[in-house]
Amino acid sequence: MSTLRSMMGAWSRLRHIHVRWRPWGSRWVLLLALAMVWELVSRLALVDPLLLPPFTGVLSRGWELSLSGRLAGDLLASAWRVLLGFALAALLANPVGIALGLYPAIEDLMSTLLSVLRPLSPPAWIPLAILWFGIGDAPAVFIIFVGTFFSLVIGTLAATKAVDSQLIKVALTMGASRWQSVCHVILPSLLPALITQVRLGLGLAWMCVIAAEMVAVRRGIGFLMIEARNLFRTEDVIVGMITIGLVGLCTDRLLIGVERVLCRWRAGLAPSQLYVRRERSP
Amino acid sequence: MKSSARVFLLAIGLTLMMLTGCTPPQHRGPITIGVRTANDHVPFYVADRQQLYRQRGLDVTVRLVPGNTEIIEALQRGDFQIGAVPVTTAIAAIAQGIPLHIVAMTGRGSDGLLVRQQDGAADVASLRGKKIATIRASILDVLLRYTLEQAGLDPERDVELVYMAKLGDLISALKTYQVDACSNTEPFMTDAERQGWGRILTYYTADWPDHPCCVVVVRDDFARQNPRALRDILAIHCAAVEWSNEHLDETAQVITDYLQTFDPDMVRNSLDRSRMFIDYHLQTEEIERMAGLMVAQGLISSIPPADRLVDLAPLSDVLKNRP
């Protein structure tokens, strides 16, 4: 009887593990399937391997670049530029976005300027970046800054406008000053949206890195990819793409964790969870 | 069906859909030649302008492309059958196994070092400790490093090389005092002199007289399947080169029309024999010498065999059968 009970216990534990890790399993199955198909079509010459080198060839090239220390050096150089450019953009864009959301007069004043500057792609800023900041890291950081700043402003502006006005009214009625209502009502309400902004913005910053590293730098993932393209080393280009993708994945997971900690009060309020709860309730 | 199996099938379907766009098509119909906006690509502009292809019964489109890499990528995909690119770009592509051959030259010389008129260096050796802008892994980079070495400078230690992406960025950086010199090409260098702010410090021909600059490359399958069309195109190329050299004023006007930037007088100056010259003659040794420089500079791992780099037969046929 006890053997049966322990077997049941083990089965229940296995089921728990299976249910808990199933979403991860599906994700990895998708990636694994893509890698297998990629390898097959390249190995069977369904696609010219010069246009799409085999997945294992790319992995082996990535390993070589890692062992030589080139990949780590380039990654660090790019990460530094991305973090600096993005941090400056976030520090400036969030207060600007909140101010625009709170004061319609300022929004009216700025909206045309924002609409004109926002669509300019990062490479369009390269000539000015060189003229204004010279050569080296500064223009690269500027290009990442300018590539993320306007999207962050627009996102924060929209989030500020979406804050429940009743909450602000209640705070003001209860004697809160304007500054207190910003600190104790608006900012906490904005927090989830701001973290989403950071997630999207960091992705955008990594998207700008290639344009940024076209300007007078000698290290960086973007530089590695540009050099590889000039020399037709397709494997190196794909290694650079995969590296940026993996870094994006890791930072995104990290930020989701940060969001869970900082926005604990929202636990259980997500629409999907509400739906699931309602479906499950008798 | 289990969800993971569904995901697997979906992945296969999506991947196959994406990859069907990667297979180079078999060549049928019109021939496309990819060229860039540069002085030594003018034989193709001339042939296009004078409708020399049509007169020979060839359906040829000359397509202007902004960058050398894009020309090779289009050749690789099969969108172009023939292209004109710098010799280093062609060698790098062939070294990576792209099925192309160099079949003719388009120009020699034309690349050099540009400094500012006022405070620029007196000679190459006096660039020690200075910042020099170049485009990584390009012909401007390979020849710059070679020239620095000839002047007794180590490109990695004695100067600071600054890498940029476009010719225009090199000029901007020099003009605005971000760098002390830049590697560049014609007609941009003559234009800088004419504007009064730039001075040509040296042409790379000083260390390698008449070095190869741009070459004509052809897809191997096109050359195999269409030997006659290739010979006709090379014959037209030779005729256009000769016409260009005999009619430098008109050639300058054609370049101006295609580049839509400069004035004909300036372009005419840049075509001077002391700066560059348009040519079709090709020697395997000079291509191998350039490949040797690229190996020494770590851009390719080894010199590809001569028969992989160059196919002299079509051009020899053309020259043999000329009246």
Question: Short summary of the structure?
Answer:
The complex is a heterodimer of chains A (282) and B (323). Chain A has 282 residues and is an all-alpha fold.
List strands and helices in order, with pairings.
The complex is a heterodimer of chains A (about 280) and B (about 325).
Chain A: H1 2-43, H2 55-67, H3 70-102, H4 104-117, H5 126-133, H6 137-161, H7 165-173, H8 178-212, H9 221-230, H10 234-262, H11 271-280
Chain B: H1 3-19, E1 31-35, H2 42-49, H3 52-55, E2 60-64, H4 68-77, E3 82-86, H5 87-95, E4 100-105, E5 107-109, E6 111-116, E7 131-134, H6 139-150, E8 160-163, H7 167-175, E9 181-185, H8 188-195, E10 198-203, E11 214-219, H9 220-225, H10 227-246, H11 248-259, H12 264-270, E12 276-278, H13 284-296, H14 306-309, H15 313-320
Helix pairs in contact in B: 2-10, 2-11, 5-13, 8-12, 10-15, 11-12
Properties at a glance:
heterodimer, A: 282 residues, mainly alpha, MetI-like fold, 2 domains, B: 323 residues, alpha/beta, D-Maltodextrin-Binding Protein, domain 2, five-stranded mixed sheet, 12 strands, 46% helix
What would your notes on this structure say?
The complex is a heterodimer of chains A (282) and B (323). Chain A is mostly helical. The longest helix of chain A has 42 residues, at 2-43. Chain A has two domains: 1-44; 55-266, MetI-like fold, CATH 1.10.3720.10. Chain A has helices spanning 2-43, 55-67, 70-102, 104-117, 126-133, 137-161, 165-173, 178-212, 221-230, 234-262, 271-280. With 323 residues, chain B is of the alpha/beta class. Chain B folds into two domains: 29-109 and 213-320, Periplasmic binding protein-like II (D-Maltodextrin-Binding Protein, domain 2, 3-Layer(aba) Sandwich), CATH 3.40.190; 111-206, D-Maltodextrin-Binding Protein, domain 2 (3-Layer(aba) Sandwich), CATH 3.40.190.10. Chain B is 46% helix and 18% strand. Chain B has 15 helices and twelve strands. In chain B, strands 2-1-3-11-4 form a five-stranded mixed beta sheet, with helices on both faces. In chain B, helix 2 packs across helix 11 (248-259). The longest helix of chain B is centred in the C-terminal third of the chain and has 20 residues, at 227-246. Chain B is globular, with a radius of gyration of 21 Å.
